[in-house]
Design goal:
single chain; 114 residues; mainly beta; globular
C-alpha cells in the first residue's frame, strides 16, 4: 500500500510564503505522476500543479505564484507558494498516480489571514 503524507501547512499572513511537502512511501517514486490540489469549504477540489516525467504544469489560477518541484532521492514533491492571499486558504492535497492508480494524502491546512 502506498502512503502519501503532506506537511508544511499552517497560518500565514497575506503576502507570505509557504512550502508544502509531500512524502510518498515505496521504491517507485520516480515513476509516479505527482500533483497538488486544494479544496476550500463549499468548493470542489481544484487542480493546482503537476509534475509528470519532469514536465511541470501550473494552473492559471496560481501561475506566477506557485511552483512545483520534486526530489526523487527524498521521495518528495514540493509546492512553493508565494504572495499568498486569503482566498488561498484551503486544505491542500497531494496525489500520486502510477499506471492509472491514484493515491491521496490526508491533506494539510493552509490558512492565509492577518
Amino acid at each position: 500500500q502506498v502512503h502519501v503524507a503532506e506537511s508544511g501547512g499552517g497560518l500565514v499572513q497575506p503576502g507570505g510564503s509557504l512550502r508544502l511537502s509531500c512524502l510518498v512511501s515505496g521504491d517507485l517514486f520516480s515513476n509516479y505522476d505527482m500533483a497538488w490540489y486544494r479544496q476550500a469549504p463549499g468548493y470542489e477540489r481544484e487542480f493546482l500543479a503537476s509534475n509528470i516525467r519532469s514536465y511541470s504544469e501550473i494552473a492559471d489560477s496560481v501561475k506566477g505564484r506557485f511552483t512545483i518541484s520534486r526530489d526523487n532521492s527524498q521521495n518528495t514533491v514540493y509546492l512553493q507558494m508565494n504572495s499568498l492571499k486569503p482566498e488561498d486558504s484551503a486544505v491542500y492535497y497531494c496525489n500520486a498516480q502510477y499506471f492509472g492508480v491514484g493515491y491521496w494524502g490526508q491533506g494539510t491546512q493552509v490558512t492565509v489571514s492577518s
